[in-house]
Design goal:
By secondary structure, the chain is mostly helical. 74% of the residues lie in helices and 0% in strands. The chain has one domain. Helix 4 runs antiparallel to helix 5, helix 4 crosses helix 7 and helix 6 crosses helix 7. The termini are close together.
């Protein structure tokens, strides 16, 4: 385990971004298109508003209106759940793709989504726990939420690398890896926020670039703290290894 230096993390993340931005962008576009079609097929959105308008303009009795309202709410809730599940499944493969790119396999492949069903369930549970803890932290003046996010940010990556581990093992591993560099990672999280703001100022297009940099920055830190697993860089000598600091 090595010490994290923010400038080195951003530097390596930028090199990975320049080399693999097209793969990550293509993956993100495919995810967006799939999500759009799922939403369209489920008829969630405009159709619900149309049904509500028709209900208000109809001569239905209060009982019939209530029955129709319940049907609309049930359908919209079901559509929302399906959409969230699809989004989650897509995100797991997306994170696997980011890992693959950082390790030198920069090709887009559907194998990234061929994960054991049990792993999807465990990552879902871990993600829910993460979100709950994150928002609890945000309630306490925002900074605790950022701190918790920094400490638990490697949970999903660890579980993708250790598919047999359980949810608690993944959370503990991320917490343990970040123990000595917690405040450095907290500072890095603030730098990421600055990158997002800078991206917004660049006609919003820069947001997509900053998002990719942040993704690779997270993986660079994960590899460095997970006992020196190497990332791809300009040359092998520039990657993290056990004998050098980040």
């Amino acid at each position: 385990m090595k010490k994290i230096i923010i400038s080195e993390v951003i530097s390596q993340a930028w090199e990975l971004t320049k080399k693999h931005w097209a793969v990550i962008l293509a993956c993100a576009i495919i995810m967006t298109v799939v999500q759009y079609f799922i939403t369209a097929i489920m008829g969630f959105g405009s159709s619900m508003g149309l049904q509500l308008a028709q209900m208000q303009n109809s001569q239905m009795s209060p009982e019939e209106q209530m029955q129709m309202l319940m049907q609309i709410l049930t359908a919209s809730t079901g559509a929302t759940i399906v959409s969230l599940i699809v989004s989650f499944v897509l995100s797991v493969g997306f994170y696997q793709t980011v890992l693959n790119c950082a390790r030198g396999n920069g090709q887009f492949t559907l194998d990234a989504w061929k994960q054991p069903a049990a792993l999807y369930v465990k990552i879902l549970i871990a993600s829910v726990v993460f979100i709950i803890l994150y928002y609890i932290g945000l309630i306490f003046c925002i900074l605790p939420g950022i701190y918790l996010a920094a400490r638990l940010q490697f949970t999903v990556y660890y579980m993708l690398d250790h598919k047999d581990c359980d949810v608690l093992d993944g959370i503990k591993a991320s917490w343990r890896m970040t123990e000595k560099d917690a405040f450095t990672l907290f500072g890095l999280a603030l730098v990421y926020i600055g990158l997002y703001i800078l991206g917004l100022l660049c006609c919003c297009v820069g947001v997509y670039v900053s998002m990719i940099v942040v993704l690779f920055g997270t993986v660079v830190c994960y590899f460095a703290l997970a006992d020196g697993t190497k990332t791809e860089s300009k040359s092998d000598s520039e990657g993290y290894d056990k004998s050098e600091k980040a």
